[in-house]
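Hello again,

I reread your note about wanting to compare the complex against the isolated chains. To keep things tidy I'm splitting this into two emails, and this first one only covers the full assembly. Below are the input lines as submitted, including protein chains and any nucleic acid or small-molecule components. They are followed by the predicted structure of everything together. The single-chain runs will come separately.
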Amino acid sequence: MKEHLKTCLGNFFICVTLINVAILVLGCMLEPEVKFGYEVFVYPLIYGFLGTLPGLVMFSRKELTIGQTIVREVIQMFLVVAIIVGFMFGRYINVPGAAPKIIGVAISVVIIYILVTFFGWLIDLRTADKMTEELKNYQEKMSNMC
Amino acid sequence: MEITVKKIGETEKEYIEIGCHKHDEHVDEIVRFIKSREGILKGTKDDRQYSIALPDILYIEAVDERTFIYTEKDCFESGRRLYEFEEVLSGRNFMRISKSVVVNLMKINHIKPYLNGRFSCVLTNNEQVIISRKYVPDVREKLKGGSL
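Full-complex prediction:
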């Protein structure tokens, strides 16, 4: 569980960064004239937190197979979209003209989700390369000891 | 048969070389004996018991209350539990990497990322075994020369 929480925390910070970028891009495209106060800095943190919450779905005491992991990843992605869209547009879901914004946000969430997964994988790739290097050193050391 | 023992430098890797006309069962027997000096495990296959040299073992896996010892070409069953192997082999080049696997670190070719924060060990025979997230810090500690 501890390792899972560490991963969730890492994902939270990647999420917050990417949400900032998404707000900038979507804001410039959809409502470039809108001005914000300082409270706007809180939103990436809230959305980052909401987006990280479904990560708990991925926790399992058992070893998951590739299939189970992929199914859980997909469930997690839909949960993230539902939570973020529900939080942002819950009150305005039936307001005319809200659909393009909802679709825009949903697509952004999916893109962010994929990017978070990708960046997480890049970090793991770097760790794996380091471990391989450590492994080679270990094997050399042990071979010389024999 | 001539037996030669040659002294080599401290920095050089120690080796044993056998010069023979034919690679037959006598040569295999000598190889088995040399390998057994590094330790052996007992395993059964087709109701016959075998001695398996530690350097030949790729990994040991627990599946449904049964324990299997895997070598490059064979799979042997053992009556011992995985935690017993973990204890017995912890001083050797073996290490627990998940709830169900103890791997021979000398038989890992490289490590690559797997799904969901886990890592995959690609073994010398191209088989893959998973390192659980929980065991990653311990594996890194051991590879860095820790005493785990």
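For quick reference: The helical segments of chain A are 2-30, 42-52, 66-89, 99-145.

B.
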